[in-house]
Design goal:
Chain lengths: ~160, ~425
Amino acid sequence: MNTILKSIDGINKLVKILLTFSLIVMTIIMILQVFSRFILNVPLPWSEEATRYLGIYAVFFGAALAIRHNELISVEAIPDLLPKTVQRVLKMIVLVICIVFFAILLKYGIDLVSKVSIQKSPALQISMSIPYFSIPLGAFLLILNAIAALIVVFKGGDEE
Amino acid sequence: MSAVLMGSLGILFIIGVPVAVTLGLASVIALMYGGDVSLLAVAQRIFTSIDSFSLMAIPFFILAGKLMETGGISKRLIAFANTLTGHHTGGLAIVTVIASMFFAAISGSSAATVAAVGSILIPSMINRGYHKNFAGAVTSISGELGIIIPPSVPMILYGVSTNTSIGDLFMAGITPGIVIGLSLIILVYVIAKKRGYAKEKKATATETWKAFKDAILALLMPIIILGGIYGGVFTPTEAAVVAVLYAFIIGAFVYREIKFDKIFNIFVSSGVTSAIVLFIIANAGIFGLVLSREGIPQMVANFFGTVTDNPIIFLLLVNLLLIIVGMFMETSASVIILAPLLTPVAVAMGIDPVHFGIIMIVNLALGMCTPPLGVNLFISCQIAGIKLTDITKALLPFYAVLITLLLLFSYVPFISMWLPNLLGR
């Protein structure tokens, strides 16, 4: 199980780089947009669309990293009242439920990507499969990280 | 189908499934039960609900906040506030409120405000003989200004989910934020006087001038952000990017406190923090789809219609509901779920959606300082080294003041609305 955990965390290093990359590129595109409109008086037609699509990828990358350390917001008031061992079992059930949901997203995300492949995005004129690919990719990364979180709970608690 | 939706929603919430997954999965279960919609629409909806340029302001504002926290801006704001009010009885507590107001004007989140101000001022207050519980309480409560004084992440969420102008919401938040800040200063002063808390030594004019010069670049920031948005120069998203650039340049080249090896971590943690919020919105989109298919917004409207047609009673009920929700739910999640349901009812009763947004935000901000789930409390208790149960009693006088102000803002729309109205929206 340690090998699985290590490989997932290895993949996460790449995810962190991709997340940082998306945010930096979004920032640069937006600076270009403001610069181009004010200084050159030429509004960029593609910049907002590019920022939105990159932002959606960033959301999926960030959400995957968040579930790895149980950072997704949940209402813990009632589980907190339960004895520790019950809490642990409940935590595992919750993660399995999450995995089920992400698996549904993965399946229908893949279907969606192939369905929209002939559509072109309005401004960038790229295939809509490219932005929509964020869904199956995100779902896949979410599943991996939910599995990692599950392993940590199963092994009995806090790794850090 | 409504029963299936609400039932699964309730069960998933109670056992502690993340809010985002709860919203998405409960909707999927309801749609599968209804059987007539392809789940392809679910996948598509999760994409389209965050495919919004306005929402992209959120990662940029969070990034700007993190850059300012690491870039030495909060330290200089606190030093400046200290030269202004440190010499009064309870000086450090008053400084906490003022520094939170400054920080709120450049950051869009309460948690960031509590962390930035509290990590410096809670230890200083405890050193100077303030009670730990009081130090924690002042910091948590002042932190709620983070989302009331613009920029504000929950205001962006409210604006996007109800089609209300984010610029107007930002302007409408300024006066309530200042009124809350001033009231807290008075309350803190009265408590400090009663307990005989220390004063700091009075700063000389030269010291004040030097602190002001150090902080001036940070103090200019809100003018650039709000002036830019309201002057029609920037969209809120562009203003957020300008804030990122500004914070980065000051932190890295003027104050020279952002080390390049730390930048990677700043980006990752900002990305994760934003994703936590935006992933809820993505899934709330699916939930909204199911709600409107079932005509649930109409049912909510009808329900309030049968209870009351009086806006005064309606606002009282809404405030009660939000205080209870705020105790158990995180602010952004509450805004995303409740704003689209409640705002149309408010508008039908003649309440301005901008004013209603401010009521929701001020109310839910209090929810960050109420147990059992209050982000501000968690952070300040951790810094002060106290338990949630210890701090609660110290919070009671603050609750009394804030609830009074909440009612004032609810029933006197002028306080929020004069500024956006003056600027001719």
